[in-house]
Amino acid sequence: MILVADSGSTKCDWVLADTDGKQLLTAQSEGINPMALSDKAIFSIIRENTDLQPYKSLITQIHFYGAGCGTVSADKKMKLILEEIFQNTNHISIKEDVIAAVHATTDQPGIICILGTGSNCSYFDGQECIQRIPSLGYVLSDEGSGNHIGKELLRAYFHHKMPARIKKDFEEQFDVDLNQVLQQLYHNQNPNKYLASFGKFIFKHKQEPFAQEILDNVIESFIETYLTHYHQELQKYPVHFVGSIAYYAQDIIIKKLKNRGYRASSFVRKPIDNLIKYIVLQNQNI
């Protein structure tokens, strides 16, 4: 059996499939980011996923794509953890989330963008990803992401710039006691996940000028920060987007790219289904 995981910092999608790609099980857990979580925390998340436990001894291949992967230390950490939990596996592949975005969207050259809890952008030349601007995480960067939207919403709320009707709904949906918010931001293990939890709220009010302005600004910030560094490639190749923020804001993204003469080719909310197809095809070609 093949186990595939696609993890952001907020959630991790798991799919168990047979060698023909038939999905036998889908599950979801908390997000697993080896750069942000301890070994103990990662062990707990995987072992507490009761859907996977009955199949542990039957899994022979694991393909883990995740935010925070892509460095030698992070990949080694994830591989050792997975080897200990799934002891009958004979192949474990650890790849960063941008590779998941590539495998889920194209096998041809293009610009690959991730807009989920965090954000990222790379040029895929058909063989490898070239990243001109590093992803600096939620503190220094992550323009256009869920946690960027969360920052803007909290700032608008506490600076009294949120319209009354939206403010009322915001207060009903979230605990916005200042002490509680600061506790989550500065003492929580995953402040980026906490910030991103506000992301869905903006789309609930997407037709409101207040929400439109925030979405317009964060998408513009993403384009200016990342996409403009791939100007030459953008003249020749399409742009692919992965992640829930990109998916639900695609009308704004398409319009902004069109105004610049660029072409948005695809929007994939959850890459996991496409990843299964890619892995099965690769296995067949071996």
Automatic annotation (TrEMBL):
One Pfam annotation reads BcrAD_BadFG
Looking at the UniProt entry, the stretches that span the membrane are: none
| ATPase BadF/BadG/BcrA/BcrD type domain residues | 6-248
The record, for PANTHER family, names: N-ACETYL-D-GLUCOSAMINE KINASE
The name this protein carries in UniProt is: ATPase BadF/BadG/BcrA/BcrD type domain-containing protein
Q: Which organism is it from?
A: Galbibacter marinus
